[in-house]
């Protein structure tokens, strides 16, 4: 019970810290393994000129969950993560491009215009479970393909980067 309370308290503390990002120049360093390194045109860092985030820090942001099929999986799956819009707002980004890079150095450009309500998420759960590297994790940019036909295009599919581990913000 105490560990559950401690986890909730930690999550709330991280959420408060992330919400106030635009007012701060530095944020606390991650306490767990880094799953995402953010660099580029940032107003906030916690490791030199970059922002390092662990899974708990991402999970402390508002969560978005939706069900969708993908061209890479069978059937409909439930994905949970932080919306690209909430992610951008939490790190103080209001314009530009997200250069998203996977662990194998594959990089895609995601325009800031994709960071909209009911848009893509940086998923950290599929069907309620963490995603292993083998299963396209630990982070996967997922669009709600089934809810909007505009998301079923080669351009959008190319932006659906899995094994995401770096994002660079460029203007």
Automatic annotation (TrEMBL):
Any signal peptide, and if so, which residues? 1-24
Q: What's in the keyword line of the UniProt record?
A: Signal
Kindly name one Pfam family recorded for this protein.
Oxidored_molyb
Q: Which InterPro entries match?
A: OxRdtase_Mopterin-bd_dom, OxRdtase_Mopterin-bd_sf
Residue span, Oxidoreductase molybdopterin-binding domain: 75-144
Q: Which SUPFAM superfamilies match?
A: Oxidoreductase molybdopterin-binding domain
Q: Report whether Amino-acid biosynthesis shows up as a keyword of the record.
A: no
Which Gene3D superfamilies does the annotation name? Oxidoreductase, molybdopterin-binding domain
Tell me the protein's name: Oxidoreductase molybdopterin-binding domain-containing protein
Q: Origin organism of this chain?
A: Yoonia rosea
């Amino acid at each position: 019970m105490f560990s559950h309370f401690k986890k909730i308290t930690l999550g709330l503390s991280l959420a408060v810290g992330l919400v106030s990002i635009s007012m701060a120049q530095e944020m606390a360093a991650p306490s767990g393994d880094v799953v995402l390194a953010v660099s580029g045109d940032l107003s906030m860092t916690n490791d030199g000129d970059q922002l390092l985030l662990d899974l708990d820090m991402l999970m402390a942001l508002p969560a978005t969950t939706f069900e969708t099929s993908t061209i890479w999986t069978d059937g409909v799956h439930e994905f949970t993560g932080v919306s690209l819009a909430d992610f951008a707002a939490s790190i103080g980004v209001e314009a530009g491009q997200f250069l998203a890079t996977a662990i194998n150095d594959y990089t895609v450009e995601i325009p800031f215009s994709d960071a909209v309500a009911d848009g893509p998420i940086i998923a950290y759960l599929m069907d309620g479970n963490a995603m292993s590297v083998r299963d396209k994790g630990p982070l996967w940019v997922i669009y709600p393909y089934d809810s909007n036909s505009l998301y079923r295009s080669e351009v959008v599919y190319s932006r659906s980067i899995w094994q995401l581990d770096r994002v660079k913000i460029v203007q």
